[in-house]
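Re: [ENG-882] Designed sequences occasionally contain unexpected residues at chain ends

Forwarding the minimal case from QA. Structure tokens:
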């Protein structure tokens, strides 16, 4: 997906949990951005073993993450490329609102009326807010997703 978001996050990523994109492709985890590979992770749709990723830090197009899954819950921290991450929204009965800054008092950048099931691309994280981008029906949206509208769970619909 084309990177349509630009972040001016001022704080360190904390309290952000996202998903490894739900494709069965091995994703390399590195000791530092562009460093040495230390291990690989991969969602497994056959055994329904999916990874959640706690974001610890961001450098350029890399997130330092702490991965977790139902079968492996004591994995070392490492770095992955941002485009390997995503999150779902929980706008089941109301419009999905994206904001210019990570707070509800900032300007709204988008208000998506329709319900959709596509994963949002994660671009950044500040406190519990996640900067996302998505393309729906040939239109691109970008903005900060509030914690109450995030769903970082492959097993439920978060409602």
């Amino acid at each position: 997906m084309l990177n349509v978001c630009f972040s001016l996050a001022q704080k360190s990523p904390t309290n952000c949990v996202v998903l490894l994109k739900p494709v069965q492709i091995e994703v390399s985890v590195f000791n530092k951005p562009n460093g040495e590979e230390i291990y690989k992770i991969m969602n497994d749709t056959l055994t329904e073993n999916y990874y959640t990723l706690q974001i610890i830090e961001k450098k350029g197009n890399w997130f330092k993450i702490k991965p977790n899954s139902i079968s492996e819950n004591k994995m070392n921290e490492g770095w992955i490329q941002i485009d390997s991450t995503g999150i779902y929204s929980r706008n089941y009965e109301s419009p999905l609102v994206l904001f210019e800054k990570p707070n509800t008092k900032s300007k709204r950048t988008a208000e998506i009326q329709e319900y959709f099931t596509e994963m949002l691309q994660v671009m950044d994280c500040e406190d519990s807010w996640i900067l996302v981008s998505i393309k729906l029906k040939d239109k691109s949206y970008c903005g900060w997703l509030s914690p109450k509208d995030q769903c970082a769970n492959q097993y439920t619909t978060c409602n």
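QA comment: On inspection the terminal residues look reasonable. The chain has a mean pLDDT of 88. Proposing we downgrade this to a documentation issue.
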